[in-house]
Every structure is written in C-alpha cells, then in structure tokens.
C-alpha cells in the first residue's frame, strides 16, 4: 500500500508541473523516489520507496516577446525582489508587472515589487519605462519625453542557488528569513517575459510512467490479497 500511496504523491507533483507549463517564470519542482528503512520488528533490509522533493529546477525558461512596457525578464542568473503577503522578502522571475490604482508596482500575483527603499510607487504618468538596471522612469502627464524622470529602481538579487528554497507562497526565499543584497550585475530586458521551464512532453511521459507503476502496485496488492485468501481456505480444509 505504501508503494501505491507514494506513486500517487509523485504523480501529484508531476501534474502540478504540467499544470504550470504555461505559467510565466514558473520553475519545475524536482522529486525522486528515495529508499527509507521500515521501522519496527522485522528484517533490517526492508525498505520503502518514498517520493521526496529535491528542490526546484532553476534553469532559465524561454523568452517571450510581448512589447508591453511593464513586462520584464531577468537576463541570465538573478531574481526580482518582491514583498510576500506575510511581509517577508521573496524572489521571483515572473516579470509580468502591473500598477495598482494607487500607483504601486506589483507582480501578477499582487506582491509589491521592492526597490532600494521599499515598495516602488509610480505617479500617474503618460509613459513608464524600465531600464536594464531596473530603473523605473516616467514621463509626467502632459509632458514631452525630455521630461523623463527616475522614480525608483527594482531590487535585483543573485544569491547562491543552495541558499534558496521554494516557499508556500510560490516565491523563493533565503533560509532563516534572511534577505539578499542587491546585485548590480543582474540585468532586465523590457518588453519580454520568461516562460516556464517545464518541458510538457517530458513531464507527460513521467506522468504516464508513474500511472503504469501505480497500476503495478495495485496488481501486487490484489495478488497478495488473493494469496492470503487461498492460504486461509487451505487452512480451513485441514
């Protein structure tokens, strides 16, 4: 029964990746079956195969040209710093940015985009530009392009991969609630989004493999049950 349960758990994780194959900036979750010793009386060689998470696939996704001025994609390694719902600092590569009615810059999930001094506020303007270094500039309403002015700079970070962990809010976080320093080497490209790094074909194959393994586990359970019933009948005849 343990094997069938773990197959279902593994299939759930693969299905989650497949469901996010079109999600901007999504990073596939990695998992594998690991041997875990069975506790209790019995031979010490008994083990169960348990589906365990191995972290997140941090490889870059493809680049999608959108032409939208608030769409940005991190070039190479790095992350955009945002404020999670609980107030903690998190990191994302989903650069589909938006403006609230109050002029606050957020990601598509509503998390506030952080700048050097906190959330970035953008005044009402005729045009908004985001530079390669994360600088947010605006052209005031009724003014010409020569009046462009910077109103903030998006915090871009690049912590070591082994320091990052995926949080329940879908953002990457540093262990222990620490925050990363801004890295001037991280750059953005405007008018572009990074796609999910999930390979739909490969993920679908994984799902089929897990489904077949689940069927084998169920057949083994049925076989063991039939053997037990046959043995019980033989004992009753003696």
Describe this structure in words.
- The protein is α+β, with helices and mostly antiparallel strands and 238 residues long.
- The chain has 2 domains: 93 residues, no CATH class; 134 residues, no CATH class.
- The chain has 2 helices and 18 strands.
- Strands 5, 6, 9, 10 and 14 form a 5-stranded antiparallel beta sheet that branches. Strands 11-12-13 form a 3-stranded antiparallel beta sheet, with no helix packed on it. Strands 1-2 form a two-stranded antiparallel sheet.
- A hairpin with a 4-residue loop joins strand 11 and strand 12.
- Helix 1 runs antiparallel to helix 2.
- The longest helix is centred in the last third of the chain and has 38 residues.
- The protein is elongated.
- The model has no long low-confidence stretch (mean pLDDT 86).
Secondary structure topology:
Blueprint: H1 2-19, E1 29-37, E2 47-56, E3 63-65, E4 72-75, E5 79-83, E6 89-92, E7 98-99, E8 105-106, E9 112-115, E10 118-119, E11 125-130, E12 135-140, E13 149-153, E14 156-157, E15 164-166, E16 172-174, E17 187-190, E18 192-194, H2 200-237
Antiparallel strand pairs: 1-2, 3-18, 4-17, 5-6, 5-9, 5-14, 7-8, 9-10, 11-12, 12-13, 15-16
Domain Flagellar hook protein FlgE/F/G-like D1: 73-138
Pfam families: Flg_bbr_C, LlgE_F_G_D1
Main location: other
* Helix percent band: 10-25%
Low-confidence runs of at least 5 consecutive residues: none
| Major sheet characteristics | 5 strands, antiparallel
The helix/strand class is: alpha+beta
Q: End-to-end span in angstroms?
A: 31 Å
For the record, the count of structural domains works out to: 2
The rough form would be described as elongated
- Name the helix and strand elements from N-terminus to C-terminus, one letter apiece: HEEEEEEEEEEEEEEEEEEH
Strand content: 25-35%
Please provide the count of β strands.
Answer: 18
Total count of helical runs of at least 4 residues: 2
| Radius of gyration, whole Å | 25 Å
Mean pLDDT: 86
């Amino acid at each position: 029964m343990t094997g069938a349960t773990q197959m279902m758990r593994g299939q759930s994780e693969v299905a989650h990746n497949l469901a996010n194959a079109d999600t901007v900036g999504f990073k596939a979750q990695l998992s594998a079956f690991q041997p875990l010793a069975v506790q209790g009386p019995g031979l010490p060689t008994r083990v169960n195969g348990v589906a365990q998470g191995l972290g997140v696939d941090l490889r870059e996704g493809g680049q999608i040209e959108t032409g939208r001025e608030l769409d940005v994609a991190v070039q190479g390694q790095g992350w955009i710093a945002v404020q999670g719902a609980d107030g903690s600092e998190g990191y994302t590569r989903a650069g589909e940015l938006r403006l609230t009615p109050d002029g606050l810059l957020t990601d598509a999930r509503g998390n506030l985009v952080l700048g050097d001094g906190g959330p970035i506020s953008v005044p009402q303007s005729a045009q908004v530009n985001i530079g390669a270094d994360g600088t947010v500039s605006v052209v005031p309403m009724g003014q010409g392009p020569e009046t462009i002015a910077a109103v903030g700079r998006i915090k871009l970070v690049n912590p070591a991969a082994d320091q990052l962990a995926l949080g329940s809010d879908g953002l990457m976080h540093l262990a222990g609630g620490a925050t990363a320093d801004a890295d001037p080497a991280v750059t953005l490209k405007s008018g572009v989004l990074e796609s999910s790094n999930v390979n739909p074909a490969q993920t679908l194959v994984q799902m089929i493999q897990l489904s077949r393994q689940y069927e084998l586990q169920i057949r083994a359970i049925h076989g063991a049950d039939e053997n037990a019933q046959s043995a019980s009948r033989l004992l009753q005849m003696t």
